[in-house]
Fold each of these.
Amino acid sequence: MDHAAATPLDPRVFEAMQPYLAGQFANPSSLYGAARETRQAVEAARHTLANILGAKPTEIVFTSGGTEGDNLAVQGVLRAHPGAHWVTSSIEHDAILGCVEPLMREGHEATIVPVEPNGLVEVAAIERAVTDQTVLISVMMANNEIGAIQPIAELAKLVAKVRADRSQRGLDRPLYLHTDAAQAAGYLDLHVARLRVDLLSLNGSKLYGPKGAGLLYVRQGTRLEPLMYGGGQERGRRSGTENVAGAVGLAKALELAAAARESESHRLAGLRDELIRRLTAAIPHTTLNGDPKRRLPNNLSLTIPGAEGEAMVLYLDNHGVQASTGSACSTGSLDPSHVLLALGRTPAEANASLRLTLGRATDEAAIDHVVKVLPPIIVRLREL
Amino acid sequence: MDHAAATPLDPRVFEAMQPYLAGQFANPSSLYGAARETRQAVEAARHTLANILGAKPTEIVFTSGGTEGDNLAVQGVLRAHPGAHWVTSSIEHDAILGCVEPLMREGHEATIVPVEPNGLVEVAAIERAVTDQTVLISVMMANNEIGAIQPIAELAKLVAKVRADRSQRGLDRPLYLHTDAAQAAGYLDLHVARLRVDLLSLNGSKLYGPKGAGLLYVRQGTRLEPLMYGGGQERGRRSGTENVAGAVGLAKALELAAAARESESHRLAGLRDELIRRLTAAIPHTTLNGDPKRRLPNNLSLTIPGAEGEAMVLYLDNHGVQASTGSACSTGSLDPSHVLLALGRTPAEANASLRLTLGRATDEAAIDHVVKVLPPIIVRLREL
């Protein structure tokens, strides 16, 4: 019940990776035959990923994961445009929001746009934040804590409108749209040509692929300064010897996720709705965080007043259920979730929250089990 | 014969990684029992690595490889000290030299100190380059192309002297010493307390460990700005979900390499010297690049006038020998090696160079084979 934090490596992904963990180890940049084979493996993975994303292979940059992809998108675009401005939302992952202050020290301003109480970014609010200095809008495709699906298509329309207006006024400043699709992968359409995004980051470990592997899609023509310099791999956008097994695993993982996307989304949305219905019925005063409709099919985030989040997680673990208070990404932090606060929750409410995220392993029996064990835990915690 | 470009994953390393590729996938930042297990695996790996390096576990920062470690050291220290100066050598890896220009645009000056014709950095030349603005000296432990072992202990003495002088003059600017130990791992002593370095980067894929895994040792008290922001993993110095299998594999790889270091260095130095002797005897006008004594036990770099490097590599591959023209890290680059040029080689000489790097798989029979096949190849190439 914590698939948003980590997913198991699909055995078929592991199988695809295995040759590159065992025998085939050549550095893809070497000149001999064995290296051409690892190079081909990386390029075949790139082609597979590009096909699924509706991108060109040259637009795929392999990274070490979601955090690197987000940082490369934001720092990369801003550093390529000195003194520029960017716009993001108050419920982004810390990999985005963490860039605000260091980039400010380098002379780049940011506007952090608040969200509606249902966790959705209002396109008009983003529009009001855009100035003639803005080069980047970064809004996640779906939120990691509350699953809220953001209006990326509408934001793409806004970007097109701003570009047309700038062009008409002879203003030469570009405007790019980045979306963090780490949580959306496997559930939403990631086709960048349909989405009309310029940058999109993905993380292998959230889609039954390997940890330490991800990608950033970078639309051709997008000016981007690398985070790391060196041997010039990934067309100079990400130096470092390619993680061959990681790239192969990421491609296999996205391939499998894309094939199962519609059926799995349908299946999980049903289980999720059932879980929301039964839990809110069984536990008085429970409310759902985030929009009930525009949310990932695998996510439910509940605020259960009188029960502390960490305690709920530990009691649930004792009953064989893995859950989360919010994001697993804010290590050891005792601060209330910035996402829940951004929805207007009080710190006390934010700390009384529980995230359950379903996945391939979740079946009807798992739902029954949670519905059986959670209500008595809440009764006990409320007594304490 | 190209172990400096890539090493196979040791089966014992693969075995150590396997549980974290298969069943144990929890995000180490989650709160439940399964996550405590992956957290413990990461921390046990950190302890193992710290022990071998003579460091504290909190001083180990896991990275995605050597390039990231180098970039984090250089960009990290410089960005934490606005408007500062740093000193490096002309034969560093591109992961170091590639930082010069972008950091200059951010207001950081660099001095690139030339090396002696034998590939060694002269400590006095580094000393002359140090100013009151200098915060970092970055010199690799051993060069990736010519194997030259740099005087790190002497540089540490210089750093201590500069620090004492600054302290006496009431100058509050720190001076740190970084060394890229990617190629040295497995052959040289990496004990940071004995070396007295402040930062040291390692790469798993060069020491029979996994690709996409490395570390940066950061001495306590060293001010360092992260490359990536986010969940605050690695004590805020490197955000991103930990690559658990990568960390475990890196620790196992360094453990095995450290245990075999002395015997393997002795064995390979013998084979290397034999190979140098027999090849220079069999191929007229062949010269060794880099100091003959102060070099890695597994490295020989030859300039063979009249034979083009890429052709030598392809002909050797045809005879089952994997070799390199220089570094595998400068993807598809046709420029002559900056390292060989820095030794005073002409572009033509640099392009007539061959790097052979021995490793665990190299035995007497492999030496015999190279000595048998290379001389006729050179005759043929010189005819062409």
Amino acid sequence: MVIGQRPKGTDSEKRVVVIGGGTGSYAVLRGLKQYTSGLTAVVTMMDSGGSSGRLRDELGLLPPGDLRQCLVALSPDGQTTLTLRNLFLYRFDRGKGLNGHSFGNLFLSALMEVSGDVNQAVKIAGRMLGIKGQVLPVTLTDCHLCARLADGSVIVGESHIDVRTEKPQVPIESVFLDPQAEANLPVLEALAQADAIVIGPGDLYSSVIPNLLVRGIPEAIKASPAVKIYVCNLMTKAGETDGFTASMFVQEIMRYLGPGASLDYAVVNTGSFPAALLKRYAEEGALPVHPDLDACAELVSRVSTGDVMASGSLLRHDPAKLAGLVMDLVGRQPATLVGAGPRPALSSSAR
Amino acid sequence: MVIGQRPKGTDSEKRVVVIGGGTGSYAVLRGLKQYTSGLTAVVTMMDSGGSSGRLRDELGLLPPGDLRQCLVALSPDGQTTLTLRNLFLYRFDRGKGLNGHSFGNLFLSALMEVSGDVNQAVKIAGRMLGIKGQVLPVTLTDCHLCARLADGSVIVGESHIDVRTEKPQVPIESVFLDPQAEANLPVLEALAQADAIVIGPGDLYSSVIPNLLVRGIPEAIKASPAVKIYVCNLMTKAGETDGFTASMFVQEIMRYLGPGASLDYAVVNTGSFPAALLKRYAEEGALPVHPDLDACAELVSRVSTGDVMASGSLLRHDPAKLAGLVMDLVGRQPATLVGAGPRPALSSSAR
């Protein structure tokens, strides 16, 4: 072994592609960046609400919000001085035209305008933020997410699917993009070269599946030699996944990956939920996802279970627990943590 | 002489304080940064128009526009890659709430909000931009510039003085601040330690003199051991300095510096003006400032003359010519240029 040269294939060099956008990807990326500098975040570009939606409508740019969240997730933590990261997290709370705008969104919008190239803009922002890895829009096509409901009607726009005001009781039959979107080429390259592909967690129809609707993405995932892992949500979501069990999440992912697809692992939470929090979530129509492990096992090669929940006031995946588990699945047992922090205790059962 | 240690007092260590704000300061700073890394830009905080005025009104922050211009002036030129500097120069050209906002202004506003401290915000922005020297708001008091006209009426707000729509024919009698503003402490320190203080160029009543209206600033200038230089404007300005000769500019500066003040130098342009440009400026009521050098010489110790104009489509001071002249006056003849670029030829007559 040559001194000063690390052996190939250590965790710190693992190429892991995380597919999603929003809060779910944020947790996965924050955890995984402790293990590897070879992260790629593939981000949905169908957001149409809030600050992103306004920028999209008024400036005609791709929505920057999910890109921003993933950039922040991959930026260095624990800076003592005020940095660009803090600014990215800032949201204007007053001002006629600025109220509600995230500064990070304005930053990305200005960069897209000045550079005239979305991939370039995100790359520059990443460099300025000192991120580990890369963030890639799944597509550069300006398109909208649409949902066909069980009654045949169609909802247009991610924000109307994310927060169902129209017919919230009618289930989603399927989702599609209008117009059809083409894959961003660097995403296809990242998928082809990946050691692992992590799909989810995140809102099933409004954050995760939109990535799989982009032409070329399911094929690239299927063709990739990577270990393929789906991380199932902890909670159902009103108007989107009401009554869904774990296997129903997995089934929908398989459906949008298309014929011939296979997942190596599904990660399903089996930790217990604090009662007080469940009550609050139930008021918003969100219930724990039932871990029907046997049904899951009929869909994927192996089911990985354990407590992957964060403590705190929100029912979220714990970045460290989730990343530890994912890195185990990627092929090294036990995973060796790059950087500091104890490795979380985790029981992982497989079938 | 110790190897690796530069002799004290070289040009690159000269502490030069530039007082103004806006386009005039931009030119001086861009030129002087080639000579010294000890620059301080003292910036008026009375702007009430444009993007700055909107942010001031809507967010209740100090106006960032002049700070931004000086930060850009002191940031490194000639980057080949897209940098924060390019973003600072970008202005949104559409979008209901964003149209007309300079990104640099939004950046500084967000920094002020997140840091909760204007001096700190400007310092951090300076560090991010990699500036040479420092930029300081002349005051942290939220105040407005007011002009008393010759007919006794009062105009409130810098933007209404800068662009005179009210009674443009009635001359300005005097300007004052409401409420009275207190000096920003680091400005007093910079003035006390300065080797040179450069006042102007810039709009007399709306950019330069507002700095001298801040309590403590005239006293600090008078008490400073620095060489004191006033750089006279090239052109008069409609509604502000109509018919002004060079000595009238100097006289107004002396008046607002107050009793006991002295200027070591007045820099007066004696270069000739391209006729085509003069015609265009005349249409806006702007005429060349007549260099009444004898009258000037009765007000200041020495009058420095020469061609300090830039070539191009605007009648502006040339950064390199002006900086070369100023550095000569600061005490080293001829000035030694730090960094690249030829030293401009300049005839400098003194009395």
